Amino acid sequence: MKALTVYLTAAVVFVGGFAVWANDNFCTEGRAHSSLKRVVADKLKSPSTASFVSGANVEKINDCYYRFAGSVDSQNDFGAIVRSDYSGMVMGNDYSVHMAELAPR
Fold it and tell me: What is the pLDDT of residues 46-79, one digit of tens each?
């Protein structure tokens, strides 16, 4: 009975590990957008105050290539909240960000 428990536990760990590995090979819109948001926030005067406005425009070019455009609110040098527009492209399984741009309104 103890041997059966060990085999079942090993099977579950293997299957669970495979499921995680398989999911990491697929690009998702959410992960791609999160990667772009981190890069955009780093370009702000106060990255910790970044609040991304919901409803960003998303264009899926292919399986691992997304283009985003949206708005973000953050504090400026004087502490006032300002809105800026951002855009950028995210490509590949590593979610590398290309052409991240930020423009104040």
Answer: 999 999 999 999 999 998 999 999 999 999 999 9
Structure tokens at 56: 């960003």
Residues contacting 45, CB < 8 A, separation 6+: 74, 75, 76, 77
HEC profile of the chain: CHHHHHHHHHHHHHHHHHHHHHHHCCCCHHHHHHHHHHHHHHHCCCHHHCEECCCCEEEEEECCEEEEEEEEEEECCCCCEEEEEEEEEEECCCCEEEEEEEEEC
